[in-house]
């Protein structure tokens, strides 16, 4: 027993068999779905924020979207995925949960999508696609979030690879540099108050500024 296992055991709820099947599929096929603690944290944010309109970059098999949508009947999600295999799985899974009316799967590369196809009043944006592109995703999609809305970024420590002394693979090394640079860029970003959490694989939450509510302990120069 350790801290993580103990806390997780307290959070364990009886789960839907179909959700368990999605987790199983992800494990068997190496799909990087969000872990339990990260998901609980996001679900808690959605509920306390009463977020109804969510935009997700990186659907994969639909696991996170489905979990968000199951929180409440009035939650609506636009989710973007480019990989045909993932798209096929996600479609199947969204149908299995009868969520076709509330999860809108956009089958395109998020870097190429015309944002005119999207709304401009999302309560929450969840960035969980190619880690090397986080800054591009943030710059492109954060403007579609309402003032006071949340931008959530997953995997900001990238499986702890950020702390390895020696990484052999050159591409991995360069990816790690990009993630570090993104975190540095995000932490002082004008117009957003960002908090980094040691939850799951590292999660950042940026609150989009409203003129009248800013965390003054985080005020930008
Ligand atoms: N949010 C999911 C996991 C997403 S895994 C969950 O927690 O359940 C990341 C996904 O992002 C992969 O399926 C990958 O194909 C997709 N992706 C990566 N770059 C993308 C891009 N530029 N546009 C659209 N999808 C992208
Ligand atoms: Mg992730």
The set of bound ligands, ions and cofactors reads: S-adenosyl-L-homocysteine, magnesium ion
Mean pLDDT: 94
Largest sheet: 7 strands, mixed
Q: Count every beta strand, where a strand is a DSSP E run of 2 or more residues.
A: 7
Low-confidence stretches: none
Which percent band covers the strand fraction? 15-25%
Question: What is the ordering of alpha helices and beta strands?
Answer: HHHEHEHEEHEHEE
Structural class: alpha/beta
How would you write the strand order of the largest sheet?
A: 3-2-1-4-5-7-6
N- and C-termini, Cα separation: 44 Å
> Into which percent range does the helicity of residues fall?
25-40%
How would you describe this structure to a colleague?
There is one protein chain. Helix content is 37%, strand content 20%. It is of the alpha/beta class. Strands 3-2-1-4-5-7-6 form a seven-stranded mixed beta sheet, with helices on both faces. The model has no long low-confidence stretch (mean pLDDT 94). It binds S-adenosyl-L-homocysteine (SAH) and magnesium ion. The site of S-adenosyl-L-homocysteine has 19 residues, from helix 4 and strand 2.
């Amino acid at each position: 027993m350790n801290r993580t296992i103990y806390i997780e055991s307290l959070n364990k709820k009886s789960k839907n068999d179909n959700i368990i099947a999605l987790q199983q599929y992800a494990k068997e096929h190496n799909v990087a779905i969000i872990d339990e603690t990260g998901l609980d944290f996001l679900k808690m944010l959605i509920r306390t924020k009463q977020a109804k309109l969510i935009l997700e970059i990186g659907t994969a098999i639909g696991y996170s979207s489905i979990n968000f949508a199951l929180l409440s009947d009035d939650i609506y999600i636009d989710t973007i995925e480019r990989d045909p295999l993932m798209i096929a799985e996600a479609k199947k899974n969204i149908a299995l949960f009868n969520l076709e009316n509330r999860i809108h799967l956009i089958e395109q590369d998020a870097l190429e999508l015309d944002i005119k196809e999207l709304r401009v009043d999302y309560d929450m944006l969840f960035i969980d696609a190619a880690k090397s592109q986080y800054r591009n995703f943030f710059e492109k999609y954060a403007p579609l979030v309402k003032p006071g809305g949340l931008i959530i970024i997953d995997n900001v420590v990238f499986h702890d690879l950020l702390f390895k002394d020696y990484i052999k693979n050159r591409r991995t090394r360069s990816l790690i540099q990009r993630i570090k640079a993104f975190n540095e860029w995000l932490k002082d970003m004008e117009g957003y108050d960002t908090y980094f959490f040691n939850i799951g694989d590292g999660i950042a939450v940026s609150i989009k500024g409203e003129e009248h509510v800013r965390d003054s302990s985080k005020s930008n120069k």
